[in-house]
User: What shape does this take?
Amino acid sequence: MFHAVIRLAFFSDLLGLELLGESFNFGAEQEPLNNGFGERLHISGLGVEDGMAVEFLAYLSPSTGCPYPANSLPNDLWHWDIIMVVADATAAAVHCP
Assistant: This one.
């Protein structure tokens, strides 16, 4: 959970997002979503009062997964970019995880 605390500090302290909620999903609720067995996730929802929110999924188990395909391209279905506008990008970049 140490890395989750660092990420939360980055997004809340530097980008001004608030922790709107968190949960742990596993078992019959999560397995159909992942089409697998034994997954346990820590889900953190961060956002601002008026605007979009984002959920971060931390897979607690299994702790190993499939490697990211070496030939991945930005137009692949599994590729996502989230663009966030901040007042001081240089100050935020210094603290990027």
Remarks:
- Helices lie at 2-14, 31-34, 89-94.
- The chain has a mean pLDDT of 78.
- Residues 2-94 form one domain.
- Strands lie at 18-26, 40-47, 53-61.
